[in-house]
Specification:
Elements lengths: L2 H48 L1 E11 L2 E8 L2 H12 L6 E5 L4 E3 L25 E4 L3 E8 L2 E9 L9 H11 L2 E9 L5 E2 L10 E7 L7 E5 L4 H58 L1
Parallel strand pairs: 4-7
Antiparallel strand pairs: 1-2, 1-11, 3-4, 3-8, 5-6, 6-7, 8-9, 8-10
Helix pairs in contact: 1-4
Keywords: Coiled coil
Length: about 280
């Protein structure tokens, strides 16, 4: 092979090497993307098989007998349970957020007067409590039986009965965004009494934060209804990703083999060119 032909061949081999290297890098990037996708699939599978759901167990009257009923824990269900426990129209539970404000699910739950706020005047109770309700929040302030009162109510529409409200409320309890408070009744001597013993002429209310994990009515258990679907999705996605990666691995090995062959020929042509140059110098020396 002459010098000109060798140089032409060397240029072709250089271009071929560059193309093979680019294609190999592209495949490497695709395999990295697949590896990242596989991590995402695994994380999603772990999340779905480790998700939990809170249940609320309550006793309801059915005819002449009491029956136990278990429902998903939502803001609405907890408030209704509190009303049933009270035996009246007010719930013995309320929710406070991490900012210290009382939370309701819609504007209709905001108190409009002192009685709705739980501070009635009369029957032995002395209330100077006033309520400022602008439709989005309510500020309750004043005194009740000599005690200073100041509360702010805000609306959190995400607690309304929607497909997302259940998870939102339950996660809020788990991470401390929401705190359950329970109304405790005390008599004129400051002794705690049951709700069924309440006497409006002598009874005052105290609200105390309670831990949801300590409430026997609430159970936090693994949610397994979606585990079979999650496993099927995981297996399908894993098989697809692994098949794609296997093909890319085969293509990558082929490119590496071709690259090695091109490098070998490239070195051989370089030696031929070097030999031709040395021969030319000898001829003219």
């Amino acid at each position: 092979m002459g010098l000109a032909a060798s140089q032409g061949r060397l240029l072709l081999l250089t271009a071929r090497k560059s193309d093979l290297e680019y294609r190999t890098q592209d495949i490497s990037q695709q395999r990295l993307t697949l590896a990242s996708e596989l991590e995402t699939v695994a994380s999603e599978y772990a999340r779905k098989t480790a998700n939990r759901q809170m249940k609320l167990t309550r006793t309801v009257v059915q005819g002449q007998a009491n029956q136990t009923q278990t429902v998903n824990l939502t803001y609405r269900n907890l408030m209704q349970y509190g009303v049933d426990e009270d035996g009246g129209t007010n719930s013995i539970y309320r929710i406070r957020n991490a900012s210290g404000k009382l939370v309701v699910s819609n504007s209709s739950e905001l108190p409009s007067n002192s009685e709705e706020a739980g501070y009635p005047n009369g029957n032995g109770n002395v209330s100077t409590v006033t309520v400022q309700n602008n439709g989005n929040q309510a500020i309750v302030s004043g005194t009740y039986n000599g005690q200073r009162i100041y509360e702010v109510y805000v609306v959190d529409s995400r607690l309304s009965d929607t497909s997302e409200s259940e998870n939102y409320f339950q996660e809020g309890l788990r991470n401390g965004r929401f705190i359950i408070e329970q109304r405790m009744l005390v008599d004129e001597n400051g002794n705690l009494i049951g709700n069924d013993e309440a006497d409006t002429t002598t009874t005052m209310s105290e609200w105390n934060p309670i831990s949801w994990s300590g409430m026997t009515e609430i159970q936090d258990t693994y949610y397994t209804d979606d585990d079979a679907t999650a496993q099927a999705e995981y297996q399908t996605a894993t098989a697809r990703v692994q098949a794609q990666d296997k093909k890319l691995e085969t293509d990558q090995k082929q490119l590496e083999t071709q690259h090695k062959a091109v490098e070998t020929e490239y070195e051989s042509v370089q030696k031929v060119i070097q030999s031709n140059i040395e021969s030319s110098f000898k001829a003219f020396s």
